[in-house]
Here is the input.
Amino acid sequence: MRILLVDDDQPLMETLAESLIHQRYAVDIASDRETAEEFISLFSYDLLLLDVILPDDDGITFCQHLRKQGFERPILMLTARDDSGNKISALDAGADDYVVKPFDFEELCARIRALLRRETHALPPVLQWKGLKLNPNTYEVTYADQPLHLTPKEYALLELLLRHTSRVFSLDAIIESLWSFEDPPSEDAVRTHIKGVRQKLKAAGAPKDLIETVYGLGYRLKPLTAAEQASATEPKRVPTPKLPKPETLAAVIKAWEQYRSVMQERLDVIEAAAIALDNGQLTQDLQQVGYANAHKLVGSLGSFGFPEGSRLARELERLLQDEPSPQQAAQVSSLVHDLRQEMAKPSKHQVKSVAIAASPLLLIISQALEHSQTWQVEALRSGIQAVIVPTLQQAAAIFPQRLPDLILLDFTPGSSPTLTAANREQLARVQQQQPGVPILVRMNSEVFSDRLQVVQQGVHGIVPATASPQQVIAAAQQTLKDVTGSARVLLVDDDPQQLTWLQTTLSLWGFEIFTLDDPNQIWQTLAAVNPDLLVLDVEMPGINGLDLCQVLRADLRWQALPILFLTVHEDAKTEGHAFSVGADDFVTKPVVAAELANRMLNRLKRSHAY
Here is the structure.
């Protein structure tokens, strides 16, 4: 499906485009009405996202024009003006939805998907043709129940054919539907994609002509026979699993770092207007440019995770909309100063990303996706990040850079009251692909031999099918504690804020955390806590961490105590010195809490004293 974004805020639109492209849409961006009209004359779009204020026109007027010209596809209006009058005008002009800047990227993408679903309501939720199935909700493709691992363009090509099973697509039509205007491939490249899909289908057992070449015209799916048409049934609806929040957050954070300088330049323009106002030299042109940049910052800053920055920009927009009075000069300058300080802080997305990264990751593999929201909410309340997917393969695609801390296999969907061969195979496959990760099993069977078998296969615990969401997550919490053995960990650092953060986040893994910000109290604290693991900083007032480690290694009471250094020093000399005086591990700050927790756990497992 193809989407046109019409807005002159380039950083915001490019970030949104990346999110939509990741969801398999082809996206074009137009910065004004003239460019948008050229795109619409060249391509067929499934949805138009239109800003209310454009450099060369009013978005509401443009929307009315498009409707009069016969444009029938959904139009979503996007604006920083949050008043009912604008909403009514936009909807009366023919808009299908109205979103106010700043917006949440996930919510906006969800609204776009909802509008596109409304347009294709007659299509089944899972697209099927003979033995071929494609689920647009999970991006899974199978033939005869065998998964097909497709590239994004191969997936988009197959979805295009499945959504229009009676149509023959020329190479030009495929390019127009699947590629953006700025990045069209050659016809040979499209043929290569088609060849790749055919090869993967054939490897899964499909006939070689499932994608049929209509010579001189293009490509289509081979038509069904009369018998196949008679036996075709509508597939069962599959609920949409929630996509992982960390992925979206990471993309938005990355985009902010990319466009931070652009936001600073916008603020510099506003500051120039403030200085000119203070000196009595503000021209109408500079005032209008300052107003336009403040207007853009309202939407951009809020969407990139700076709600207070968005509020300050909105105040500046209000003051600069009409020529401000000399008496307002101090207010404008104060707002610019406050906004610059706000933009120097971490965004709420960065704060949330740290919190998510610090949480234990519970991976739930289940076909009962209707439970996903209640499980995830309950997990969040307990400080655990839960991700629910129907297959292990999908989990690997979602979290390529982080292993789960715990896996829950749900064997309850289906009518079988006993453990099936498919259940056993799935358990073995999970153990093979995720070695060392503790596993819980949720199952129907009360048969003793079934339960004995999963326990003998190394499952950490069994959750009954009747367990409530609270009981499921409580079992996960207990398992995390069992894995760590409620190990007693002493953290020694002269930074109280660092100690507070570490105590909060590491406690989620089941560690019993003790902190000490005065290394001179180390001997009394060691005797009182009797820790299973000691975490030291290198540079501390009074006692150097390296010297302390060396002394501990000479003390018969503590020479076997595992010691991990957590420090800002990342040079090889300091690291080598740490290991030479007896350190067991060396981690540099800043560190993701999940990595630190796993390093601590691995060190405890290797310790003879644990």
Notes: Residues 232-244 have pLDDT under 50 and may be disordered.
